[in-house]
Amino acid sequence: MIYLDNNATSFLAPAIAERMRVLSLERIANPSSQHAAGRRARSLVEAARDRILAGLGARTAGMGADQLLFTSGGTEANNLALFGLSELRPGRILVSAIEHPSVLGAADRLRQLGRSTETIPVTREGLVDLEALRRMLTADSSSPVSVVSVMAANNETGVLQPIESVAALCQEHRVLFHCDAVQMLGKVPICFEAWKADAMTVTAHKIHGPVGIGGLILRHGIQIAPQMFGGFQQLGLRPGTEAPILCDAFAATVEEALSVGARAEKLSMLRDRLEAGIVRSIEESVVVGREAKRLPHTLSVSFPGVDRQALQVALDLKGIACSTGSACASGSSQPSHVLQAMHLPDQVVKGGIRFSVSTENTKAEIDRTIEVLVDVVASLRKQTTAKWRFGA
Ligand SMILES: Cc1ncc(COP(=O)(O)O)c(C=O)c1O
User: Fold this and answer.
1) Residue ranges of the chain with pLDDT lower than 50?
2) How far is CA 151 from CA 92, 101, 267, 289, 382, in A?
3) Is residue 322 annotated as a catalytic residue, yes or no?
4) DSSP notation for 114-169
Protein backbone atom coordinates (compact mmCIF):
# COMPACT_ATOMS: atom_id res chain seq x y z
CA MET A 1 0.00 0.00 0.00
CA ILE A 2 1.11 3.55 -0.72
CA TYR A 3 -0.33 5.46 2.24
CA LEU A 4 -1.11 9.10 1.42
CA ASP A 5 -3.81 9.73 4.02
CA ASN A 6 -1.80 11.03 6.97
CA ASN A 7 -4.26 13.83 7.72
CA ALA A 8 -6.82 11.14 8.57
CA THR A 9 -4.34 9.36 10.81
CA SER A 10 -0.63 8.60 10.78
CA PHE A 11 0.97 5.33 11.81
CA LEU A 12 2.38 4.97 15.29
CA ALA A 13 6.14 5.67 15.33
CA PRO A 14 8.09 2.54 16.31
CA ALA A 15 9.92 4.43 19.11
CA ILE A 16 6.60 5.55 20.64
CA ALA A 17 5.15 2.04 20.29
CA GLU A 18 8.20 0.65 22.09
CA ARG A 19 7.90 3.23 24.87
CA MET A 20 4.24 2.29 25.31
CA ARG A 21 5.07 -1.42 25.30
CA VAL A 22 7.68 -1.00 28.03
CA LEU A 23 5.38 1.13 30.21
CA SER A 24 2.45 -1.25 29.67
CA LEU A 25 4.46 -4.04 31.27
CA GLU A 26 5.29 -1.89 34.29
CA ARG A 27 1.88 -2.34 35.94
CA ILE A 28 0.89 1.31 36.02
CA ALA A 29 -1.73 2.10 38.69
CA ASN A 30 -4.58 4.62 38.73
CA PRO A 31 -3.01 8.11 38.96
CA SER A 32 -5.60 9.10 41.58
CA SER A 33 -4.71 6.22 43.92
CA GLN A 34 -3.12 7.19 47.23
CA HIS A 35 -0.26 4.67 47.23
CA ALA A 36 3.24 4.57 45.80
CA ALA A 37 2.13 2.97 42.52
CA GLY A 38 -0.58 5.61 42.18
CA ARG A 39 1.91 8.37 42.88
CA ARG A 40 4.21 7.00 40.17
CA ALA A 41 1.31 7.02 37.69
CA ARG A 42 0.41 10.58 38.78
CA SER A 43 3.95 11.76 38.18
CA LEU A 44 3.87 10.30 34.65
CA VAL A 45 0.65 12.21 33.90
CA GLU A 46 1.82 15.51 35.40
CA ALA A 47 5.25 15.29 33.77
CA ALA A 48 3.54 14.63 30.43
CA ARG A 49 1.29 17.66 30.94
CA ASP A 50 4.30 19.91 31.56
CA ARG A 51 6.28 18.46 28.67
CA ILE A 52 3.43 19.08 26.24
CA LEU A 53 2.81 22.64 27.49
CA ALA A 54 6.53 23.42 27.22
CA GLY A 55 6.77 21.83 23.77
CA LEU A 56 3.89 23.93 22.46
CA GLY A 57 5.21 27.21 23.80
CA ALA A 58 2.72 27.49 26.65
CA ARG A 59 3.62 28.63 30.16
CA THR A 60 4.33 25.77 32.56
CA ALA A 61 5.47 26.21 36.14
CA GLY A 62 4.79 28.85 38.76
CA MET A 63 2.30 31.67 38.74
CA GLY A 64 0.49 32.17 35.49
CA ALA A 65 0.85 28.63 34.13
CA ASP A 66 -1.41 27.70 31.25
CA GLN A 67 -3.58 24.62 31.66
CA LEU A 68 -3.76 21.41 29.64
CA LEU A 69 -6.85 19.22 29.92
CA PHE A 70 -6.27 15.77 28.47
CA THR A 71 -9.11 14.50 26.30
CA SER A 72 -9.73 11.47 24.10
CA GLY A 73 -8.61 13.45 21.05
CA GLY A 74 -9.28 16.51 18.90
CA THR A 75 -13.02 15.98 18.51
CA GLU A 76 -13.61 15.95 22.25
CA ALA A 77 -11.29 18.91 22.82
CA ASN A 78 -13.11 20.95 20.16
CA ASN A 79 -16.48 20.08 21.70
CA LEU A 80 -15.22 20.92 25.18
CA ALA A 81 -13.93 24.26 23.92
CA LEU A 82 -17.11 25.31 22.15
CA PHE A 83 -19.59 24.11 24.78
CA GLY A 84 -17.40 24.80 27.80
CA LEU A 85 -16.28 28.31 26.86
CA SER A 86 -19.66 29.49 25.59
CA GLU A 87 -21.63 28.11 28.57
CA LEU A 88 -20.02 30.67 30.87
CA ARG A 89 -20.35 33.55 28.41
CA PRO A 90 -23.57 34.75 26.82
CA GLY A 91 -23.24 36.14 23.31
CA ARG A 92 -22.81 35.08 19.70
CA ILE A 93 -20.42 32.29 18.70
CA LEU A 94 -18.47 32.60 15.43
CA VAL A 95 -16.87 29.63 13.67
CA SER A 96 -15.19 29.64 10.28
CA ALA A 97 -16.92 27.90 7.38
CA ILE A 98 -14.00 25.52 6.88
CA GLU A 99 -13.70 24.16 10.42
CA HIS A 100 -13.47 20.44 11.09
CA PRO A 101 -16.87 18.71 11.51
CA SER A 102 -16.19 18.49 15.27
CA VAL A 103 -16.35 22.30 15.50
CA LEU A 104 -19.16 22.75 12.97
CA GLY A 105 -21.21 19.97 14.59
CA ALA A 106 -20.76 21.49 18.05
CA ALA A 107 -21.83 24.89 16.69
CA ASP A 108 -24.93 23.31 15.09
CA ARG A 109 -25.85 21.70 18.40
CA LEU A 110 -25.39 25.00 20.24
CA ARG A 111 -27.70 26.61 17.68
CA GLN A 112 -30.33 23.90 18.30
CA LEU A 113 -30.02 24.68 22.01
CA GLY A 114 -30.86 28.29 21.34
CA ARG A 115 -27.43 29.93 21.07
CA SER A 116 -26.74 32.38 18.28
CA THR A 117 -23.98 30.98 16.08
CA GLU A 118 -22.65 32.42 12.83
CA THR A 119 -20.26 31.28 10.13
CA ILE A 120 -17.22 33.32 9.13
CA PRO A 121 -16.77 33.10 5.33
CA VAL A 122 -13.48 32.32 3.60
CA THR A 123 -11.83 33.77 0.51
CA ARG A 124 -11.38 31.85 -2.77
CA GLU A 125 -7.89 30.88 -1.57
CA GLY A 126 -9.45 29.24 1.49
CA LEU A 127 -8.35 31.87 4.03
CA VAL A 128 -10.64 33.14 6.74
CA ASP A 129 -12.01 36.48 5.58
CA LEU A 130 -10.60 38.92 8.15
CA GLU A 131 -12.73 41.82 6.94
CA ALA A 132 -15.87 39.73 7.32
CA LEU A 133 -14.74 38.72 10.80
CA ARG A 134 -14.16 42.35 11.73
CA ARG A 135 -17.67 43.25 10.54
CA MET A 136 -19.22 40.34 12.45
CA LEU A 137 -17.40 41.33 15.62
CA THR A 138 -18.84 44.84 15.47
CA ALA A 139 -22.22 44.04 13.86
CA ASP A 140 -24.75 43.62 16.66
CA SER A 141 -23.97 45.66 19.73
CA SER A 142 -27.07 44.33 21.53
CA SER A 143 -25.58 40.82 21.35
CA PRO A 144 -21.78 40.90 21.39
CA VAL A 145 -19.68 37.95 20.26
CA SER A 146 -18.31 35.80 23.10
CA VAL A 147 -16.30 33.04 21.37
CA VAL A 148 -14.54 32.76 17.98
CA SER A 149 -13.19 29.45 16.68
CA VAL A 150 -10.77 29.43 13.74
CA MET A 151 -8.43 26.56 12.92
CA ALA A 152 -4.67 26.99 12.47
CA ALA A 153 -4.48 25.00 9.24
CA ASN A 154 -7.22 23.38 7.23
CA ASN A 155 -7.24 19.60 7.17
CA GLU A 156 -8.41 19.34 3.54
CA THR A 157 -6.51 22.09 1.72
CA GLY A 158 -3.64 22.57 4.19
CA VAL A 159 -4.15 26.35 3.91
CA LEU A 160 -2.58 28.15 6.89
CA GLN A 161 -4.97 30.58 8.52
CA PRO A 162 -4.06 34.11 9.67
CA ILE A 163 -4.14 33.09 13.32
CA GLU A 164 -2.23 36.03 14.74
CA SER A 165 -4.56 38.51 13.00
CA VAL A 166 -7.62 36.60 14.22
CA ALA A 167 -6.18 36.65 17.76
CA ALA A 168 -5.50 40.38 17.54
CA LEU A 169 -9.07 41.08 16.39
CA CYS A 170 -10.44 38.94 19.20
CA GLN A 171 -8.30 40.75 21.76
CA GLU A 172 -9.42 44.13 20.43
CA HIS A 173 -13.05 43.10 20.88
CA ARG A 174 -12.50 41.21 24.16
CA VAL A 175 -13.68 37.95 22.67
CA LEU A 176 -12.32 34.49 23.49
CA PHE A 177 -10.39 32.83 20.68
CA HIS A 178 -10.26 29.04 20.31
CA CYS A 179 -7.88 27.57 17.72
CA ASP A 180 -7.94 23.99 16.43
CA ALA A 181 -4.24 23.28 15.83
CA VAL A 182 -4.64 19.54 15.15
CA GLN A 183 -3.16 19.59 11.66
CA MET A 184 -0.53 22.24 12.36
CA LEU A 185 1.22 20.29 15.11
CA GLY A 186 4.51 18.81 13.93
CA LYS A 187 4.32 20.48 10.51
CA VAL A 188 4.77 24.15 11.36
CA PRO A 189 6.19 25.38 14.72
CA ILE A 190 3.52 26.25 17.27
CA CYS A 191 3.94 28.82 20.01
CA PHE A 192 0.76 29.08 22.07
CA GLU A 193 1.94 32.20 23.89
CA ALA A 194 2.91 34.02 20.70
CA TRP A 195 -0.38 33.15 19.02
CA LYS A 196 -2.33 34.75 21.84
CA ALA A 197 -5.10 32.17 21.58
CA ASP A 198 -7.19 31.53 24.70
CA ALA A 199 -7.73 27.86 23.94
CA MET A 200 -6.04 25.45 21.56
CA THR A 201 -6.88 21.89 20.48
CA VAL A 202 -4.23 19.26 19.79
CA THR A 203 -4.24 15.49 19.19
CA ALA A 204 -1.51 12.84 19.05
CA HIS A 205 -2.47 10.55 16.20
CA LYS A 206 -1.85 12.96 13.31
CA ILE A 207 1.85 13.06 14.17
CA HIS A 208 2.67 9.37 14.66
CA GLY A 209 1.39 9.22 18.23
CA PRO A 210 -1.35 6.95 19.56
CA VAL A 211 -5.05 7.35 18.77
CA GLY A 212 -7.20 8.15 21.81
CA ILE A 213 -5.37 11.06 23.39
CA GLY A 214 -5.48 14.77 22.74
CA GLY A 215 -5.92 17.90 24.74
CA LEU A 216 -7.28 21.37 25.17
CA ILE A 217 -4.80 24.02 26.26
CA LEU A 218 -6.32 26.95 28.14
CA ARG A 219 -4.57 30.26 28.74
CA HIS A 220 -3.95 30.96 32.42
CA GLY A 221 -7.13 32.24 34.07
CA ILE A 222 -9.55 31.18 31.31
CA GLN A 223 -12.57 29.53 32.91
CA ILE A 224 -14.35 26.63 31.25
CA ALA A 225 -17.51 24.74 32.21
CA PRO A 226 -17.11 20.93 32.35
CA GLN A 227 -19.17 18.91 29.90
CA MET A 228 -18.75 15.59 31.74
CA PHE A 229 -19.57 14.98 35.37
CA GLY A 230 -18.94 12.61 38.21
CA GLY A 231 -15.21 12.80 38.85
CA PHE A 232 -12.66 15.12 40.38
CA GLN A 233 -9.84 14.40 37.93
CA GLN A 234 -8.35 17.37 36.08
CA LEU A 235 -10.05 19.71 38.58
CA GLY A 236 -13.40 18.23 37.62
CA LEU A 237 -13.17 20.04 34.29
CA ARG A 238 -12.65 16.84 32.35
CA PRO A 239 -13.27 14.00 34.77
CA GLY A 240 -12.37 10.36 34.19
CA THR A 241 -9.27 8.32 35.01
CA GLU A 242 -6.29 9.77 33.16
CA ALA A 243 -4.36 7.35 30.94
CA PRO A 244 -0.71 7.61 32.06
CA ILE A 245 0.73 5.58 29.19
CA LEU A 246 -1.18 7.56 26.56
CA CYS A 247 -0.28 10.87 28.26
CA ASP A 248 3.40 9.89 28.30
CA ALA A 249 3.28 8.75 24.67
CA PHE A 250 1.58 12.01 23.67
CA ALA A 251 4.35 14.01 25.38
CA ALA A 252 7.05 11.96 23.65
CA THR A 253 5.25 12.46 20.32
CA VAL A 254 5.10 16.24 20.81
CA GLU A 255 8.79 16.33 21.74
CA GLU A 256 9.64 14.31 18.65
CA ALA A 257 7.50 16.68 16.56
CA LEU A 258 9.41 19.74 17.76
CA SER A 259 12.20 19.23 15.26
CA VAL A 260 9.91 20.56 12.56
CA GLY A 261 12.58 21.92 10.21
CA ALA A 262 14.10 18.81 8.66
CA ARG A 263 10.76 16.99 8.59
CA ALA A 264 8.94 19.87 6.91
CA GLU A 265 11.64 19.98 4.25
CA LYS A 266 11.19 16.30 3.37
CA LEU A 267 7.39 16.61 3.48
CA SER A 268 7.29 19.57 1.12
CA MET A 269 9.77 17.91 -1.24
CA LEU A 270 7.43 14.89 -1.53
CA ARG A 271 4.23 16.96 -1.73
CA ASP A 272 5.71 19.34 -4.32
CA ARG A 273 6.92 16.39 -6.41
CA LEU A 274 3.41 14.94 -6.38
CA GLU A 275 1.82 18.29 -7.16
CA ALA A 276 4.21 19.12 -10.00
CA GLY A 277 3.85 15.63 -11.48
CA ILE A 278 0.06 15.86 -11.45
CA VAL A 279 -0.06 19.36 -12.92
CA ARG A 280 2.43 18.37 -15.64
CA SER A 281 0.75 15.10 -16.60
CA ILE A 282 -2.98 15.56 -16.10
CA GLU A 283 -4.83 18.11 -18.17
CA GLU A 284 -6.88 20.69 -16.30
CA SER A 285 -6.02 19.46 -12.83
CA VAL A 286 -6.72 22.14 -10.24
CA VAL A 287 -4.53 22.54 -7.14
CA VAL A 288 -6.78 23.96 -4.44
CA GLY A 289 -5.31 26.79 -2.36
CA ARG A 290 -2.23 26.92 -4.57
CA GLU A 291 -1.76 30.67 -4.08
CA ALA A 292 -1.93 30.45 -0.29
CA LYS A 293 0.66 29.36 2.27
CA ARG A 294 -0.04 25.71 3.00
CA LEU A 295 1.00 22.88 5.29
CA PRO A 296 4.04 21.20 3.73
CA HIS A 297 2.47 17.75 3.40
CA THR A 298 -1.10 18.35 2.19
CA LEU A 299 -2.28 18.44 -1.42
CA SER A 300 -5.89 19.11 -2.29
CA VAL A 301 -6.32 18.59 -6.01
CA SER A 302 -9.31 18.31 -8.27
CA PHE A 303 -9.89 16.66 -11.61
CA PRO A 304 -12.97 18.23 -13.17
CA GLY A 305 -15.03 15.60 -14.96
CA VAL A 306 -14.13 12.92 -12.44
CA ASP A 307 -16.23 11.79 -9.49
CA ARG A 308 -14.06 11.99 -6.37
CA GLN A 309 -15.50 8.85 -4.83
CA ALA A 310 -15.00 6.79 -7.98
CA LEU A 311 -11.44 8.12 -8.11
CA GLN A 312 -10.72 7.25 -4.49
CA VAL A 313 -12.05 3.71 -4.99
CA ALA A 314 -10.06 3.25 -8.20
CA LEU A 315 -6.86 4.39 -6.45
CA ASP A 316 -7.61 2.10 -3.52
CA LEU A 317 -7.92 -0.85 -5.90
CA LYS A 318 -4.43 0.02 -7.17
CA GLY A 319 -3.07 0.12 -3.60
CA ILE A 320 -3.04 3.88 -3.08
CA ALA A 321 -4.76 5.27 0.04
CA CYS A 322 -5.99 8.85 -0.02
CA SER A 323 -9.25 10.53 0.90
CA THR A 324 -12.09 12.63 -0.42
CA GLY A 325 -12.03 15.07 2.47
CA SER A 326 -12.12 15.06 6.25
CA ALA A 327 -12.01 11.51 7.59
CA CYS A 328 -15.02 12.35 9.77
CA ALA A 329 -17.04 13.33 6.71
CA SER A 330 -15.57 11.08 4.04
CA GLY A 331 -17.87 8.18 4.93
CA SER A 332 -20.66 10.36 3.59
CA SER A 333 -21.33 11.18 -0.05
CA GLN A 334 -21.60 14.90 0.68
CA PRO A 335 -19.22 17.11 -1.28
CA SER A 336 -16.51 18.86 0.73
CA HIS A 337 -17.89 21.76 2.77
CA VAL A 338 -14.40 23.30 2.59
CA LEU A 339 -14.24 23.45 -1.22
CA GLN A 340 -17.86 24.66 -1.31
CA ALA A 341 -17.08 27.43 1.17
CA MET A 342 -14.29 28.57 -1.19
CA HIS A 343 -16.96 28.95 -3.92
CA LEU A 344 -15.05 26.74 -6.32
CA PRO A 345 -16.87 25.66 -9.51
CA ASP A 346 -19.14 22.66 -9.08
CA GLN A 347 -16.96 20.39 -11.19
CA VAL A 348 -13.92 21.25 -9.07
CA VAL A 349 -15.81 20.42 -5.88
CA LYS A 350 -17.08 17.14 -7.38
CA GLY A 351 -13.62 16.03 -8.47
CA GLY A 352 -11.68 17.04 -5.35
CA ILE A 353 -9.40 14.61 -3.56
CA ARG A 354 -6.79 14.94 -0.78
CA PHE A 355 -3.31 13.49 -0.51
CA SER A 356 -1.32 13.89 2.70
CA VAL A 357 2.21 12.53 2.81
CA SER A 358 4.47 11.56 5.70
CA THR A 359 8.24 11.28 6.01
CA GLU A 360 7.80 7.53 5.59
CA ASN A 361 6.83 8.01 1.94
CA THR A 362 9.44 7.73 -0.79
CA LYS A 363 10.00 9.47 -4.11
CA ALA A 364 9.31 6.14 -5.83
CA GLU A 365 5.88 5.98 -4.19
CA ILE A 366 5.10 9.49 -5.32
CA ASP A 367 6.13 8.70 -8.90
CA ARG A 368 4.04 5.53 -8.88
CA THR A 369 1.04 7.51 -7.62
CA ILE A 370 1.37 10.02 -10.47
CA GLU A 371 1.62 7.17 -12.99
CA VAL A 372 -1.51 5.47 -11.63
CA LEU A 373 -3.43 8.76 -11.40
CA VAL A 374 -2.74 9.56 -15.06
CA ASP A 375 -4.36 6.26 -16.13
CA VAL A 376 -7.23 6.33 -13.65
CA VAL A 377 -8.24 9.95 -14.33
CA ALA A 378 -8.10 9.35 -18.11
CA SER A 379 -10.30 6.27 -17.88
CA LEU A 380 -12.81 7.90 -15.51
CA ARG A 381 -13.02 10.95 -17.74
CA LYS A 382 -13.69 8.71 -20.73
CA GLN A 383 -16.57 7.06 -18.89
CA THR A 384 -18.25 10.28 -17.86
CA THR A 385 -20.66 12.06 -20.12
CA ALA A 386 -20.33 15.31 -18.15
CA LYS A 387 -18.92 18.25 -20.04
CA TRP A 388 -16.06 18.86 -17.70
CA ARG A 389 -14.03 21.41 -19.54
CA PHE A 390 -14.42 24.83 -18.04
CA GLY A 391 -16.78 26.92 -20.07
CA ALA A 392 -18.18 23.91 -21.93
C1 LIG B 1 -8.53 19.91 11.95
C2 LIG B 1 -8.99 18.73 12.76
N3 LIG B 1 -9.57 18.93 13.95
C4 LIG B 1 -10.01 17.92 14.71
C5 LIG B 1 -9.87 16.61 14.30
C6 LIG B 1 -10.38 15.51 15.17
O7 LIG B 1 -9.33 14.91 15.87
P8 LIG B 1 -9.50 13.43 16.49
O9 LIG B 1 -9.45 12.50 15.32
O10 LIG B 1 -8.33 13.30 17.40
O11 LIG B 1 -10.79 13.38 17.19
C12 LIG B 1 -9.27 16.35 13.05
C13 LIG B 1 -9.16 14.95 12.56
O14 LIG B 1 -9.35 14.69 11.40
C15 LIG B 1 -8.82 17.43 12.27
O16 LIG B 1 -8.26 17.25 11.08
Assistant:
1) 330, 391-392
2) 18, 12, 21, 16, 38
3) no
4) T--EEEE-B-TTS-B-HHHHHHHHHH-TTS-EEEEE--SB-TTT-BBP-HHHHHHH
pLDDT at 392: 43
* Mutation to probe ligand 1, out of 6, 12, 75 (largest number of atoms < 8 A from CB): 75
Residue type, 262: A
210 lines ligand 1 (CB under 6 A): no
Domain boundaries, the chain: 2-8+259-383, 63-240
**What is the percent of the chain where pLDDT is above 70?**
96
**What topology is assigned to 63-240 in CATH?**
Aspartate Aminotransferase; domain 2 (3.40.640)
Task: Determine contact, residues 298/271, Cβ cutoff 8 Å.
Answer: yes
Classify domain 2-8+259-383 at the CATH class level.
alpha beta
Residue 2, beta-bridge partner list = 320
How do strand 176-180 and strand 214-218 relate by DSSP bridges? unpaired
